[in-house]
């Protein structure tokens, strides 16, 4: 894997984890459908995580872990 | 009458767990790999639930909702980042790599894996020793939680010591009998049971209150500030420090880390990875919302009661649901504690027998004897933590938090070793020892300064020596309190310690050469044939 690509994956993952907290809603207390908006963000973000992890497991599983990993070489 | 039914529900539940253990026992082979890892055959549902149930502890049912009650529901976000996101990523980064290595080289423990790569039984012992130091208070924490919950539920009819003792006894029985397979099966039952009871509790209470909008509106009247994201308690530094240290700590907890070796196939790992965030969402949202909403409802539960050690979840259940349902949920909470503790007992025992007893005490031990020692280890570990729990008054949260951060210190040196060939034995040892010393000095900061003052007092009584070396305590305690300040610009000592461990591992590896018996290629080339 190229250096840049590797850094991209790490930074992307870190940012994704970081936005598990909606920083832009800091101090906000808007209530939507009986729950604070930031709790809805939490629910949506974890659902999104599940979808992204599923896609990753389908297409990229082995990336960075298996030494000779190839994009299409890992179909069971 | 109601007391008898409550006790019957709880005992019935314990017996059910034991029966499952006995069924699992019939499938058990007499080998260490089977006792510890069910011979690496675990499927998706069982792996997912056993990891999940193992992770959940008294915190989800007691300390967590209490925090939501006192400070607001922001803990949900902390849990989301730590468990739903960071741990899931580590599931891949650490877990998948460990699983591949375990498949090829039959590792059962983390220490074994590191000791083999770095050609060092001492490193193996170090990792096991550090892990056992943190595991002990955490198992104790679970027993404290169980005893307290039973006492509160039965209004003192079952005293603390009896409740905690009863749970300890049942755990010893099914762990000793059935090993990992028994634990994984009971965990699956316990995990499902916890999910269902928590949701029923939420729906039940919300239906009586008049819906989530009413509950939130009442919370707004009582504690308006809880609806806004962030507070003086929930600072960004606090939330991130907690999420990161606990998330990484979880991956190094022996009972969780060992599960990385137990998956039956790559497919199992993939499916569990993708389902993980949803499972976290399903359990934490109802548990923490109940705690948060309880603050606004007319329940007579006040902040003082909770801060004095009361638990909001049993109190609100007693208020809104029939006693038998409250007993069911408490049984669910005990399930959470048992499913964490049983696995910890087993993993603690495996760390001890494989990484300390075998390399350092008796290398020629037979397979049959290792099997016996592993089971004796479980009993000794459970009984000593139980005895300790009778004397320990510290709150659940402080104990648990110290253990998670303690384990978190191991994570970065291990990740560096797994992914960078240049890591040397000296480097990883420096990273592990340095970060542990730093974090322990922070945890025991006040004892450290008291020790310095006592030492000066003792030296002062020696005629000449006292005047020569006297006067050191003031500058030294000053130094200790500055360096081991507990928090650094709002960031926790646990997080700073992780950074220190990373820095030490990398720089010392850079400065040293690998020892002759290190096998640098193991983590890379061995996988290439896969």
Q: Can you tell me about this structure?
A:
The complex is a heterodimer of chains A (76) and B (530). Chain A is elongated. A two-stranded antiparallel sheet of chain A has the order 1-2. With 76 residues, chain A is mostly helical. Chain A is built from 2 helices and 2 strands, in the order H-E-E-H. Chain A has one domain. Chain B has a single domain (2-394), classed as Up-down Bundle (Sodium/glucose cotransporter), CATH 1.20.1730.10. Chain B has 24 helices and 2 strands. Chain B has a two-stranded antiparallel ribbon. In chain B, helix 7 packs across helix 17 and helix 20 packs antiparallel against helix 22. The mean pLDDT of chain B is 86. The A-B interface holds A 13, 16-18, 20-23, 25-29, 31, 33-36, 38-39, 42-43, 45-47, 49-50, 53-54, 56-57, 61, 64-68, 76 and B 73, 76-77, 80-81, 84-86, 88-89, 92-93, 96-97, 100, 211-213, 215-216, 220, 224, 227-230, 236, 239-240, 243, 266-267, 270-271, 273-278, 280-281, 285, 289, 419, 524-525, 527-528, 530.
Fraction of residues in helix of chain A = 40-55%
Largest sheet of chain A: 2 strands, antiparallel
* Large-scale geometry of chain B: globular
Q: Roughly what percent helix of chain B?
A: over 70%
Order of helices and strands of chain A: HEEH
End-to-end gap of chain A: 22 Å
What is the CATH H-level superfamily of chain B?
Sodium/glucose cotransporter
Brief write-up:
Chain A is mainly alpha-helical and 76 residues long.
Topology overview:
The complex is a heterodimer of chains A (76) and B (530).
Chain A lengths: L2 H16 L12 E2 L2 E2 H23 L17
Antiparallel strand pairs in A: 1-2
Chain B lengths: L1 H24 L6 H6 L6 H12 L2 H14 L3 H31 L4 H8 L3 H33 L6 H50 L2 H11 L13 H17 L1 H4 L1 H4 L3 H29 L8 H5 L4 H9 L2 H39 L5 H25 L4 H24 L5 H19 L1 H16 L2 H7 L3 H11 L3 E2 L2 E2 H19 L13 H4 L2
Antiparallel strand pairs in B: 1-2
Helix pairs in contact in B: 1-8, 1-16, 3-8, 3-13, 3-16, 4-13, 4-16, 5-10, 5-13, 6-7, 7-8, 7-16, 7-17, 7-18, 8-13, 8-16, 8-17, 10-18, 16-17, 18-19, 18-23, 19-23, 20-21, 20-22
């Amino acid at each position: 894997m190229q250096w840049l690509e590797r850094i991209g994956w790490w930074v992307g993952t870190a940012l994704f984890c970081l936005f598990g907290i909606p920083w832009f809603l800091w101090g906000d207390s808007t209530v939507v459908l009986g729950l604070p908006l930031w709790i809805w963000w939490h629910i949506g973000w974890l659902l999104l995580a599940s979808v992204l992890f599923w896609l990753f497991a389908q297409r990229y599983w082995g990336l960075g872990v298996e030494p000779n990993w190839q994009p299409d070489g890992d179909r069971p | 009458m109601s007391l008898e039914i409550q006790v019957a529900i709880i005992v019935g539940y314990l017996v059910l767990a034991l029966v499952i253990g006995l069924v699992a026992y019939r499938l058990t082979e007499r080998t260490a790999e089977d006792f510890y890892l069910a011979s690496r055959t675990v499927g998706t549902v069982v792996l997912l639930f056993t990891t999940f149930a193992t992770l959940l502890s008294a915190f989800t049912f007691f300390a967590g909702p209490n925090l939501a009650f006192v400070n607001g529901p922001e803990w949900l976000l902390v849990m989301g980042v730590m468990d739903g996101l960071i741990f899931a990523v580590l599931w891949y980064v650490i877990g998948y790599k460990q699983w591949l290595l375990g498949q090829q080289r039959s590792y059962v423990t983390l220490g074994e894996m590191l000791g083999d790569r770095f050609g060092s039984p001492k490193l193996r012992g170090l990792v096991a020793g550090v892990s056992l130091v943190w595991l002990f208070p955490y198992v104790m924490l679970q027993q404290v939680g169980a005893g307290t919950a039973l006492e509160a539920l039965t209004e003192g009819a079952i005293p603390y010591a009896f409740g905690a003792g009863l749970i300890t006894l049942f755990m010893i029985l099914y762990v000793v009998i059935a090993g990992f397979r028994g634990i994984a099966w009971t965990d699956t039952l316990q995990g499902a049971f916890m999910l269902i009871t928590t949701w029923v509790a939420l729906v039940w209470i919300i239906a009586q209150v008049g819906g989530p909008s009413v509950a939130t509106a009442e919370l707004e009247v009582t504690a308006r500030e809880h609806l806004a994201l962030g507070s003086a308690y929930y600072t960004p530094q606090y939330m991130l420090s907690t999420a990161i240290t606990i998330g990484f700590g979880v991956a190094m907890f022996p009972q969780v880390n060992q599960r990385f070796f137990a998956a039956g196939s790559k497919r199992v790992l993939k499916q569990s990875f993708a389902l993980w965030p949803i499972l976290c969402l399903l359990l934490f949202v109802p548990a923490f919302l109940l705690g948060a909403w309880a603050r606004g409802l007319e329940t007579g539960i006040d902040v003082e009661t909770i801060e004095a050690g009361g638990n909001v979840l049993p109190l609100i259940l007693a208020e809104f649901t029939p006693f038998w349902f409250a007993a069911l949920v408490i049984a669910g909470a005990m399930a959470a504690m048992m499913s964490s503790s049983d696995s910890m007992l087993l993993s603690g025992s495996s760390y001890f027998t494989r990484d300390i007893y075998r390399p350092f005490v008796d290398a020629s031990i037979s397979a049959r004897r290792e099997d016996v020692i592993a089971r004796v280890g479980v009993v000794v570990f459970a009984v000593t933590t139980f005895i300790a729990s009778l004397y320990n008054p510290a709150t659940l949260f402080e104990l648990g938090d110290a253990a998670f951060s303690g384990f978190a210190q191991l994570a970065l040196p291990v990740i560096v070793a797994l992914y960078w060939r240049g890591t040397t034995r000296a480097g990883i040892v420096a990273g592990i020892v340095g970060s542990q010393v730093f974090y322990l000095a922070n945890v025991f900061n006040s004892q450290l300064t008291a020790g310095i003052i006592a030492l000066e007092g003792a030296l002062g009584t020696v005629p000449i020596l006292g005047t020569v070396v006297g006067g050191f305590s003031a500058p030294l305690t000053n130094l200790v309190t500055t360096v081991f300040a507990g928090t650094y610009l709002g960031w926790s000592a646990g997080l700073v310690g992780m950074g220190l461990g990373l820095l030490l591992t990398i720089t010392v590896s850079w400065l040293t050469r690998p020892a002759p018996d290190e096998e640098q290629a193991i983590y890379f080339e061995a996988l290439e044939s896969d």
